[in-house]
Design brief:
heterodimer; A: alpha/beta; 4-stranded antiparallel β-sheet; 6 helices; 10 strands; B: alpha+beta; 6-stranded mixed barrel; 24 helices; 64% helix
């Protein structure tokens, strides 16, 4: 169904000393459930801001953000936290794993707070880390760490998986495998996945591509035949 | 200007990380405040005292002569080079009755230049019957300004021989720097201690010599007391005075000896005279005696004669009476004869006549008639002749009778004479006897006079002999030229200052340690956060030094600012607080001097700077040496490591993973670990010391009077009291229901010495050692093992034993009133106030050869309140045998005042402990939150509620706090013991205990401080912006 996510006339500005910065200057788009969405744009366009708002980590100055019918722009802090807890899975560019915990414990960190978690070990197996369950992040490679991060996000069984440049710190091959994982997850679990990247070569793999520039949506493209990321070369 | 951008970066940095700046600022301020403040207290105390000494011109030197001092001495001393001024001084001890209690007063003469009195109320005496008193006097006696007081000598001497007045009006109240504390010295009258001093005009003293001469030394006032410089200056003059001492003493000796000697010679001469006179008198008496004997003999003879005479007279009288009788008889015979004659004559005549008639009638013739007539006539003539014969006879008889009568008359006359003579003789004898009696009486008188005279001579001889002995005893006097070191309170004050100095060496270490740790972690944090900047600057080509300068300067400014602030506050506040606390003991100090002690401020600042800069250097060096590229990459997060606990799967499996994270975190950030543990530990230690101090001091109060000295009052016996008076007193005590029990005790002041050191203390010899434990409990402090007062040795109280290094089994020398003995110490007993030695009466007898004189009664009045106690005491004081009553509650009151002041110190400690805890925890939380911002933001992103996120961080805090508290307990106990033993004053032994409640309070307070900081930090936690924190490094 369309309009699983809807952003309407969203503006975000904030004061930095005497300067007013308009991070988002009128964002409008919709996303359907189960879609693999890629948001592209140059650096500083506002992509991360959109993702942050979608993830309930940031607030809008104007406009509405509907997720599964609820306007999260109106949510108070506690509601937002609950929202994040139960509905969202977030994957960062720099993994942001807790260094002091093993891979399994990092995933447990997420699973212990949600209502309906998936088993940490199972998830880690699914992302291909059976051998690495008891290693610390420092003992894992970049790709492995990102997988842990994904596993952590997935363990929550979220409705929406948000990924901010997930392959930004990884090499070509590893990055590709991560994207594949994301794509497969999207298909297999019918999870809505939103990925930010500034690599426009990736756009064929998405169901929907949202182009953002200078805080505005410049183009929304629907891809009826998304391709598997394996086939894309860049 | 070069490096303008860099400088801008610097100033911005301070603005933006004000928290961090303040962390260092505050901990440095605390450390410096404590360091400088405590260290400065010692010199400040000296300055404060010196100020007072200067204000009242306390003497630098005091000269005492064993035979007193004269005007010439004053002049002689005044002439010495270096002497600024001299002033003579009188003093003596008297007793004064107040509220039934006998107070011992030191009467001092008012001085004009040296040892001036600080008048707090009223004025100095201006006439001989006025007096100024010290304010102890008013408080102890109940007198007030304007009242009259009466004094007495306290000995057999008449008070009027000592002072010109015995009644004085109180016109003023004051204090003297000479008596800085509440001790006024000891005395040989009354109960042995001087209670207060009073000041009168010098004219009031009748003594001929001065009691002392006060000297001020040139230049000494400008110097500070207690310094070496001062001591040297004074010593110079002091030795000069000593140099003239011998000559002056000789002069004094001669002054006293010569007239005395002359007097004695005079007396001797007079005695000789008298002796001679007596010899003469004796001779006279002897003569008189002889005379008297003679007279007596004479009288005896006269008496005998008289008796003879009387007898003779008696005989004569008897004879006379006989004669008289005979004469009477003769007269009556004669009369009858006469009568017969007459009758016969008559008859004859009648017959004749008749016959004549008859004849006439007869008718005879003439011749017959003539013959008959003639016959008749013849017959008648014959009869008449017969008659005439008879008449003659009668006449003869008459004559005889007449003669006899005349003889009788003569005889009677003679007898009368004789009687007269006898009377005369008797009178004479009576006179003579009277004379003899008189004479005897006179003799007796004279003899008595002679006896008296001889007695007088004997007395006079004795007096002369005594005087000669006295004079012989007159030794060459000596001078004691004493400096201020002879004043007990002066020395004690310095010792107290030293003690604070000792503490000042130890305490600040805690703060500096924590300061070092905090600045290390803070600066490390700062440098790590700015690694990219540093990398960039390096890449741009700035030198290591240029880059480091920022951090060094940053730390420098924070430290300098903190130091200045801390020093300014600490140098004023801490000394003021501590000295004010001490003012309880030294009430007269007018003001507290707390100058800005540049030395300590500078020292503290330098130390702080060193501390912080070295820490900064260490923090910087790692980063500065790294390659720029390395720096610009995000720091590889510190690897997680397996913790020890993980090897115990039994425990590890049980922990949920947040606990695992916590434990790993603790082990991971060691610097932080130590900083927190030491900071909290320090806080806990300070709290413990604060509370513990209170406990230790409070225990004196409770233990001493609730557990050790459990008697309620003591009554001292007047040493002039008679047996009956004492019995009367005992009876009164027996009859008083409030008094449950009494015990007689002999008390006195003794000196003990051991291995060269000696001290004086009070000795108690109870009459009944078994009953003694109801009055004073004798026990060891540790373990409370009971000690018995046996006959093998004495018991000593702990404080004095410790001071002299005496242990049970040691033998000490004991001296009382010139007699010195050796005695073994069999036990050390717990005691907190003043020093005592306990001895059994049997031992006393053995050592001193006589029974101890019981001069005090201990009383037990259980359940009696203070007012009733006072009533009992007053009733007893009315008895002449009681010379004073002492209530143990008096000491309790005195102590409670001391405790109140010590509360101030305790509060200072508590507040500083809190400040320390706050700063440390604030810093810790700051660092934690800053460093783990990403981690915490991630948690937030994951959907952790704020509270959950907070708990995640706080769990570590709590564990660290608990560990710190544990360490703090140990540290606190050690510190507490150190402080107690350093600070306790001589007279009072502080308990070595810390109450369990203090531990609880300390822990609770520590937790409270932690909780407070955590609470403040919660808000910071909430504000972690996920977005900002997770900003990718692009």
């Amino acid at each position: 169904m369309t309009d699983f996510i809807k952003m309407e006339k969203v503006r975000k500005s904030y004061q930095m000393g005497e300067v007013q910065i308009h991070a988002l200057d009128g964002i409008d788009f919709t996303i359907a459930k189960g879609e693999f969405v890629i948001i592209v744009g140059p650096s500083g366009a506002g992509k991360t801001t959109v993702l942050n708002i979608l993830g309930g980590m940031d607030t809008v100055s104007e406009g509405a953000v509907f997720v599964a019918g609820n306007d999260i722009a109106d949510y108070k802090e506690k509601q937002l936290t609950k929202y994040r807890r139960d509905e969202i899975g977030f994957v960062f560019q720099f993994y942001n794993l807790v260094q002091n915990l093993t891979a399994k414990e990092n995933v447990e960190l997420a699973s212990q707070i949600c209502k309906d978690p998936l088993d940490a070990e199972v998830i880690l197996n699914e992302v291909g880390l059976e051998e690495r369950i008891n290693n610390f992040p420092a003992q894992l490679s970049g790709g492995e760490q990102q997988r842990v991060a994904i596993a952590r996000a997935l363990a929550k069984n979220p409705k929406l998986l948000l990924c901010d440049e997930p392959t930004g710190a990884l090499d070509y091959m590893t990055g590709k495998s991560i994207l594949k994982l994301l794509q497969d997850t999207c298909k297999e679990r019918n999870m809505t996945v939103v990925v930010i990247t500034h690599n426009s070569a990736l756009t064929p793999m998405a169901d929907r591509v949202i182009k953002i520039k200078n805080g505005k949506v410049t183009q929304v493209t629907q891809n009826d035949n998304p391709v598997s990321v394996d086939t894309i070369e860049w | 200007m070069k490096r303008k951008a860099l400088r801008k970066d610097f100033t911005m940095e301070i603005k933006s990380s004000l928290n961090r700046f303040l962390s260092i600022f505050m901990i440095v301020a605390l450390g410096v405040a404590f360091f400088a403040g405590l260290r400065a207290t010692d010199p400040d105390m000296r300055l404060t005292a010196d100020h007072y000494y200067d204000l009242s011109d306390l003497m630098d030197i005091r000269v005492i002569g064993t035979l007193g001092l004269t005007k010439d001495d004053v002049t002689a001393i005044g002439d010495i080079n270096g002497v600024k001024s001299v002033e003579p001084f009188y003093s003596t001890h008297v007793v004064c009755n107040a509220n039934g209690n006998e107070l011992v007063l030191e009467v001092m003469s008012a001085t004009k230049k040296i040892n001036k009195i600080t008048v707090t109320e009223g004025r100095m005496p201006q006439s001989a019957d006025e007096v100024l008193v010290d304010d102890f006097f008013l408080r102890n006696s109940g007198y007030q300004l304007g009242d009259k007081i009466k004094v007495d000598s306290g000995t057999e001497e008449n008070i009027t021989d000592i002072l010109t007045e015995k009644e004085f009006t109180i016109v003023g109240v004051g204090s003297t720097a000479y008596y800085l504390s509440f001790q006024r010295g000891s005395s040989s009258i009354g109960n042995g201690d001087v209670d207060s001093f009073v000041v009168v005009l010098p004219e009031v003293f009748k003594q001929e010599a001065y009691s002392a001469i006060y000297v001020s030394v040139v230049g000494a006032k400008e110097m500070t007391a207690y310094t070496d410089e001062y001591d040297a200056e004074v010593e110079e003059v002091r030795s000069k005075i000593e140099a003239i001492a011998d000559a002056r003493c000789q002069t004094r000796y001669d002054e006293l000896y010569n007239p005395a000697y002359a007097d004695i010679q005079d007396a001797k001469d007079k005695l000789e005279e008298s002796k001679n006179k007596i010899i003469d008198s004796k001779e006279e008496i002897a003569t008189s005696k002889i005379k008297l004997s003679d007279s007596e003999a004479e009288i005896i003879k006269s008496k005998e004669d008289l008796v003879e005479y009387k007898t003779k007279l008696k005989d004569s009288r008897a004879e006379l009476e006989d004669s008289k009788l005979k004469i009477e008889k003769s007269i009556s015979e004669l009369n009858s004869k006469r009568a017969q004659l007459e009758m016969a004559q008559k008859a004859a005549k009648k017959e004749y006549d008749e016959n004549l008639e008859k004849l006439a009638y007869s008718g005879m013739t003439e011749p017959q008639l003539s013959a008959a007539k003639t016959q008749l006539e013849q017959g008648y003539q014959g009869a008449l002749l017969e008659f005439a014969k008879a008449d003659k006879q009668i006449a003869a008889g008459d004559k005889e009778i007449g003669a006899a009568q005349a003889r009788i008359k003569t005889g009677e006359k003679e007898l009368a004479h004789g009687e007269v003579k006898i009377t005369e003789g008797e009178a004479k004898i009576a006179d003579g006897e009277k004379e003899i009696i008189d004479g005897r009486k006179k003799l007796v008188d004279a003899e008595k006079k002679i006896a008296d005279g001889e007695k007088e001579i004997a007395d006079g001889q004795i007096k002369i002999t005594d005087a000669e002995n006295e004079l012989a005893k007159l030794e060459l006097p000596s001078w004691y030229v004493l400096d201020r070191g002879s004043i007990e309170a002066y020395v004690e004050f310095e010792q107290n200052a030293d003690r604070i100095g000792a503490i000042g060496e130890v305490f600040p270490a805690i703060f500096f340690l924590v300061a070092a740790l905090i600045s290390l972690t803070t600066m490390t944090r700062m440098v790590e956060e700015e690694r990219i900047e540093i990398g960039t600057l390096k890449a741009l080509g700035y030198s290591k030094l240029a880059i480091a300068r920022k951090y060094i300067l940053y730390a420098f400014l924070a430290t300098l600012g903190g130091s200045i602030f801390g020093a300014s506050v600490g140098l004023k506040v801490l000394p003021t607080v501590i000295i004010t606390a001490y003012k309880i003991l030294y009430r007269n100090i007018p003001e507290v001097i707390t100058p800005f002690n540049t030395y300590y401020a500078a020292l503290a600042t330098v130390l702080a700077l060193l501390c912080v800069e070295i820490a900064t250097f260490f923090a910087c060096s790692k980063e500065l040496h790294a390659k720029p590229a390395q720096l610009m990459r995000p720091e590889a997060p510190k690897a997680g490591k397996r913790v020890f606990l993980e090897r115990i799967p039994f425990v590890w499996k049980r922990l949920n993973f947040t606990w695992k994270a916590t434990i790993r975190n603790l082990m991971r950030y060691k610097k932080r670990f130590f900083m927190t543990v030491f900071g909290i530990g320090g806080c806990m230690a300070l709290l413990l010391v604060g509370f513990g101090l209170k406990d230790s001091i409070f225990v004196i109060y409770t233990r001493q009077f609730d557990e050790i000295m459990i008697y309620d009052a003591s009554v001292s016996v007047d040493n002039k009291a008679s047996e009956e008076q004492i019995e009367d007193l005992e009876k009164t005590m027996e009859e008083n229901d409030a008094i449950a029990d009494t015990l007689r005790v002999a008390t006195g002041s003794v000196d003990i010495s051991f291995e060269g050191a000696s001290k004086s203390l009070s000795m108690y010899v109870p009459e009944d050692t078994a009953a003694f434990e109801k009055y004073i409990v004798l026990r060891e402090r540790v373990g409370h093992k009971k000690l018995t007062l046996g006959n093998e040795g004495v018991l000593l109280t702990e404080q004095i034993a410790k001071k002299l290094g005496i242990k049970p089994g040691d033998t000490i020398r004991l001296k009382q009133d010139e007699k010195e003995v050796q005695v073994k110490v069999t036990g050390i007993t717990e005691n907190y106030m003043t020093h005592y030695l306990y001895m059994s009466p049997e031992l006393y007898q053995k050592l001193f050869g006589h029974t101890a004189k019981m001069n005090e009664y201990f009383l037990r009045m259980p359940g009696v309140n203070q007012k009733s106690e006072l009533a009992v005491g007053n009733a007893l004081l009315e008895k002449p045998a009681a010379s004073g009553v002492f209530y143990t509650s008096y000491y309790q009151d005195l102590l409670s005042n001391v405790l109140v002041s010590l509360n101030i110190v305790v509060w200072v400690l508590i507040i500083s402990a809190g400040a320390l805890a706050f700063v440390v925890l604030y810093n810790l939380n700051n660092i934690n939150i800053n460093e783990r911002r990403r981690e915490l933001a991630t948690l937030k992103v994951l959907g952790f509620y704020n509270k959950e996120t907070a708990t995640y961080v706080y769990r570590e805090n709590v564990i660290l706090t608990l560990i710190g508290a544990g360490l703090g307990v140990i540290l606190g106990i050690i510190l507490h013991r150190y402080v107690i033993t350093t600070v306790e004053i001589d007279l009072v032994m502080f308990g070595r205990n810390i109450d369990p409640s203090s531990f609880i309070y300390s822990i609770l307070l520590t937790i409270l401080f932690s909780a407070f900081v955590n609470f403040v930090m919660y808000f910071k936690l909430k504000k972690i912006d996920m977005v900002e924190s997770l900003k990718s490094i692009e």
